[in-house]
TrEMBL record, chain A:
UniProt key word RNA-binding: yes
Protein family per UniProt: Belongs to the RNase PH family.
Any one of the GO CC terms: nuclear exosome (RNase complex)
Protein name (Swiss-Prot/TrEMBL): 3'-5'-exoribonuclease
Superkingdom in the source lineage: Eukaryota
Domain annotation Exoribonuclease phosphorolytic: ranges: 45-185, 189-247
Pfam families assigned to the protein according to its UniProt record, in alphabetical order: RNase_PH (PF01138), RNase_PH_C (PF03725)
Species this chain originates from: Coemansia biformis
UniProtKB/TrEMBL annotation, chain B:
GO CC annotations on file: cytoplasmic exosome (RNase complex); nuclear exosome (RNase complex); nucleolus
UniProt GO MF annotations: mRNA 3'-UTR AU-rich region binding
Family according to the record: Belongs to the RNase PH family.
Cellular localization per UniProt: Cytoplasm; Nucleus, Nucleolus
Gene3D superfamilies: GHMP Kinase, N-terminal domain
InterPro entries the record matches: ExoRNase_PH_dom1, ExoRNase_PH_dom2, ExoRNase_PH_dom2_sf, Exosome_comp_Rrp42_subfam, PNPase/RNase_PH_dom_sf, Ribosomal_Su5_D2-typ_SF
One Pfam family of this chain: RNase_PH
Primary location recorded for the protein, binned into one broad class: cytoplasm
Domain Exoribonuclease phosphorolytic: 33-172, 208-272
This protein's name: Ribosomal RNA-processing protein 42
GO biological process: exonucleolytic trimming to generate mature 3'-end of 5.8S rRNA from tricistronic rRNA transcript (SSU-rRNA, 5.8S rRNA, LSU-rRNA); nuclear mRNA surveillance; nuclear polyadenylation-dependent rRNA catabolic process; rRNA catabolic process; TRAMP-dependent tRNA surveillance pathway; U1 snRNA 3'-end processing; U4 snRNA 3'-end processing; U5 snRNA 3'-end processing
Organism: Coemansia biformis
Alphabetical list of PANTHER family matching this protein: EXOSOME COMPLEX COMPONENT RRP42, EXOSOME COMPLEX EXONUCLEASE RIBOSOMAL RNA PROCESSING PROTEIN
From TrEMBL, chain C:
GO CC term, one of those recorded: nuclear exosome (RNase complex)
Organism listed in the record: Coemansia biformis
Gene transcribed to yield this protein: rrp4
Record keywords: Exosome, Nucleus, RNA-binding, rRNA processing
Lineage: superkingdom: Eukaryota
Subcellular location: Nucleus
Protein name, UniProt field: Exosome complex component rrp4
InterPro entries cross-referenced by the UniProt entry: Exosome_cplx_N_dom, Exosome_RNA_bind1/RRP40/RRP4, KH_dom_type_1, KH_dom_type_1_sf, NA-bd_OB-fold, S1_domain, S1_RRP4
Main location (coarse class): nucleus
């Protein structure tokens, strides 16, 4: 480093920085021996709240007159995670084929969404990847052949995240609800759920500290009525038996999440 | 990849063939194409490999180079570990649609897949050994892949090439010594030994996984799908398996449909059976490639192309 | 390349030239394809082989795109459905055009095209479909105009597609062959080849109503094996850079019978086959 050239235009920090001190809580050999921190069972998903329609009531009044308003929107909470999603379309697509519509997804974290540091407002590589994952997870559910030449766009904003895999799962659930709100034809709603492997136990819907302690995470998106896994992602090492077990538990949990979302959609229609 | 449009008759021919276990090029459902491998033909890299899956000099072709760099530690990073950073780029020489930003989506997908397989303890590489001085300096291994040609099944070829390159990679030795600074505090310092003869291979590289990608076509699935088969496939899932038959990563790719959970379980079991054969095949091909490299003259343009 | 200015006569046969090399400075020669001239000297504009027909000197590039000629039999893939026409990828500089008025409509008899035909163009050919057609004429911009007005032309079914170098498929009297192994092969002059299960001509005619059907006939495993074997043989011939004709395909097929179709393209088997096939071809000629 060229330390002899002093930059006088900016305020210069010290040459060396010191890491802030943290008191480390010693994780016991089995952190879940006495249950989870928030008192949940190991296979219990955090409480879910869904609401369709625009975030602010003010916008909904102008929705009929303004073409710019989204066709469908949803807000989704799962514990501390808060995700909102707006769906536009089906509308004239730029790159869709004559046979089938296309589904595009844009996933963004709000700058203040993550616990560790402020996120840049420039789209990061991980956001781009998650956008793709969401497209892959949701597209099989949409009857794209019913929308030739059209495109459907979903814009997801994470207002607050708590556990990466759980946040992606929440985003999938949120898009599902928003698509239903937009009246887009689907084979089935997609419900998603994540788990983390800590020691030899699978723990459902990990919050950030739980996820940090986990050696492997599993995310599954599932269509319960159609009985199809639309997305699966395993990050980390497991034995084959553990994977089998995770697939089974996860699909079961997805079915439970699905029931919650469907109940809400039914209620909201009534 | 999805730019190929086939006629309904071709699609039906491929689908029927897969369901009967007789694919368009005569292979069975779980048969793979020929693999060609060359290692360490890039002298500037710490390790490199080129892998091709296909027939008669054509096929999916991936080049991977490993570059090791010393990084200084900053707060928030693991204190006593090195890192592996992956990047995949699809060259426009592989396909017209990769020109400009056309390959961006595929690049992101493949980069993340490779990162998912190699970027953590699941890769089997001992990241602790890549630490030089805790909280001060560590090695970063940049795994950069270049997709030179695409004829279906990029992921498997990519992981083959990355595995071969990491196995072939050599790191310079590092000498760490304690020195007292002017205040009398003990400080650790290190020196990288600049000697081509005195280099070490990566600890734990033998445990690197291989990937098997399954494409569902009709009611059945195939491995090592050709370009045409990929155009017909309803769903695709990549499973990375370690030599100890543990599952290191699973990732589903872009697709029109999902998998039934029962089919997914079947695929996970098939993945291990195939991976066992794949590891044996890898060893044979890798050893042969090493022998060829050892026998060669110093790398020039022609040895780079070699049998490719 | 040196030009022999002394005698001004050159042996312009069987010479390989690179772009920019002078071929001859004899003013008696006429410039053909692949050449350009400044003054009396003729230069090559491509890398290839010099060909001379009387006074006409041209250079044929070893690798080139298909340039159509009227009467060529081609295989093409529909890329776009437009107003009263389809655009067809024929491996040429521009997409070919198949006019709605240049196809046979179902029903066999010649009838006037109605508006309803225009509306249901996709039921005849849609994007991705493979057609077997003949080059009818050129458009003003050089695009090829195709037609399928014959019972043997039309939509291709029951098989698989292989693309080869166009210059390897010579123009001949017939481009539709039924091989002894019960496989039909359509050798498009543009390098697109269709290999399918044999369907007898009588059956084709009986099915005139269904010429635009997308349905395959049932194909047995044995037929699939033969098709796969022929397809792999064609790829092998392409790799060997050997003319792809009925004879060469049959030779390759016969030589390959000792191996399973899936092994044909493996390096060692392919090398062995290459040796025996080229040997037989040389013997024949």
């Amino acid at each position: 480093m060229a330390a002899n050239i002093i930059d006088r235009r900016r305020i210069n920090g010290p040459q060396r920085s010191v890491e802030p001190l943290y008191t480390h809580v010693d994780a016991a050999a089995d952190p879940f021996a006495s249950g989870r921190g928030d008192g949940r069972a190991l296979d219990q998903v955090r409480p879910i709240f869904v609401k369709t329609g625009p975030l602010s009531a003010h916008r909904s009044e102008s929705a009929l007159s303004s073409a710019a308003a989204a066709s469908g929107a949803a807000f989704y909470e799962q514990g501390k995670i808060r995700v909102s999603c707006a769906v536009y379309g089906p509308r004239q697509g730029r790159r869709s084929s004559a046979r089938m519509g296309s589904f595009d997804c844009d996933f963004r974290y709000a700058p203040f969404a993550c616990s560790w540091k402020r996120r840049s407002h420039v789209k990061g590589a991980d956001e781009r990847e998650i956008s793709l994952m969401l497209e892959h997870a949701i597209a099989p559910a949409i009857r794209l052949e019913a929308y030739p030449k059209a495109c459907i766009d979903a814009y997801v904003t994470v207002i607050e995240s708590d556990g990466k895999a759980a946040t992606i799962a929440a985003a999938i659930n949120c898009i599902s609800a928003a698509l239903a709100d937009a009246g887009i034809e689907m084979y089935d709603s997609v419900a998603a759920c994540s788990m983390g492997l800590t020691g030899a136990r699978w723990v459902a819907d990990c919050a950030q500290p739980e996820e940090d302690a986990a050696s492997c995470s599993m995310l599954i998106a599932y269509m319960p009525s159609a009985d199809e896994v639309t997305y699966i992602l395993q990050h980390g090492k497991t034995t084959p038996e553990q994977t089998d077990q995770a697939v089974q538990t996860c699909t079961n949990m997805c079915a439970r999440v699905y029931a919650v979302i469907c109940r809400y959609l039914q209620d909201s229609l009534e | 990849m999805a730019s190929l449009i086939l006629s309904p008759a071709e699609q039906d021919y491929i689908t029927q063939g897969v369901e009967r276990g007789f694919r368009a090029d005569g292979r069975g459902g779980l048969d793979r194409r020929e693999v060609t491998l060359r290692t360490n033909m890039i002298s500037q890299a710490n390790g490199s490999a080129r892998c091709r899956t296909g027939y008669l000099g054509a096929g999916t072709d991936v080049l991977v180079g490993i570059k090791a760099e010393v990084n200084s530690w900053t707060a928030g990073e693991p204190e006593d570990k090195g890192a592996i950073v992956c990047n995949v780029e699809c060259s426009p020489s592989a396909a017209q649609e990769f020109e400009g930003r056309g390959a961006e989506e595929l690049n992101v997908e493949l980069t993340q897949l490779l990162d998912r397989i190699l970027g953590g303890p699941q890769s089997g590489i001992d990241l602790g050994k890549l630490c030089i001085i805790p909280k001060q300096a560590y090695w970063v291994l940049h795994v950069d892949a270049l997709v030179l040609d695409v004829k279906g099944s990029i992921t498997d070829t990519l992981v083959w090439a990355a595995r071969a390159a990491l196995l072939a990679a050599r790191l310079p030795r590092v000498v760490v010594e304690s020195v007292a600074d002017e205040d009398g505090n003990m400080q650790s310092e290190f020196d990288v030994v600049d000697d081509a003869e005195d280099q070490i291979s990566l600890e734990g590289a033998d445990n690197l996984p291989l990937a098997v990608t399954f494409s569902q076509i009709g009611k059945r699935y195939v491995v090592d799908a050709s370009e045409q088969e990929e155009a017909v496939a309803q769903a695709r899932v990549t499973v990375a398996v370690s030599p100890q038959m543990e599952i290191c990563a699973i990732q589903k790719g872009a697709a029109l449909r999902g998998f039934a959970p029962s089919l997914l379980t079947e695929i996970l079991h098939a993945a291990r059976t195939i991976a066992r054969e794949e590891f044996a095949r890898f060893k044979a091909v890798f050893d042969a490639a090493n022998k060829a490299t050892a026998a060669d003259e110093p790398s020039t343009g022609s040895t780079f192309l070699g049998e490719f | 390349m040196e030009v022999d200015t002394e005698t001004q006569v050159m042996d312009v046969t069987a010479r390989i030239v690179t772009p920019g090399s002078a071929i001859t400075s004899d003013p008696g020669f006429i410039r053909g394809h692949g050449t350009f001239g400044e003054g009396p000297t003729i230069y090559s504009s491509v890398a290839g082989v010099i060909e001379r027909i009387n006074k006409l000197v041209s250079v044929r590039s070893l690798k080139q795109r298909y340039g159509g000629e009227i009467g060529d039999i081609v295989v093409g893939r529909i890329t776009e459905v437009a107003a009263k026409r389809w655009r067809v990828d024929v491996n040429s500089r521009q997409d070919g055009v198949l006019l709605l008025s240049s196809i046979n409509l179902p029903g066999g008899i010649q009838r006037r095209k109605s508006e309803s035909d225009e509306l249901q163009m996709r039921t005849f050919f849609s994007e991705g479909d493979l057609v077997f057609a003949e080059v009818q004429s050129y458009f003003a911009d050089g695009a090829l105009s195709l037609h399928t007005r014959s019972i043997q032309y039309g939509k291709l079914r029951n098989g698989t597609f292989v693309a080869v170098f166009p210059q390897l498929v010579p123009r001949s009297r017939t481009h539709f062959h039924t091989l002894p192994c019960g496989v039909d092969v359509v050798l498009g002059v543009n390098g697109y080849i269709w290999i399918s299960k044999h369907v007898s001509a009588a059956k084709v005619e009986a099915n005139a109503e269904h010429i635009y059907s997308d349905k395959n006939e049932p194909i047995s495993d044995e037929e699939r094996e033969s098709i796969a074997r022929v397809a792999n043989c064609v790829q092998l011939l392409n790799r060997l850079y050997v003319k792809i004709t009925e004879t060469s395909i049959i030779f390759a097929y016969e030589e390959s019978l000792g191996h399973a179709p899936k092994d044909l393209l493996a390096l060692d088997v392919a090398a062995e086959l290459a040796h025996s096939v080229t040997g037989r071809l040389r013997q024949q000629s």
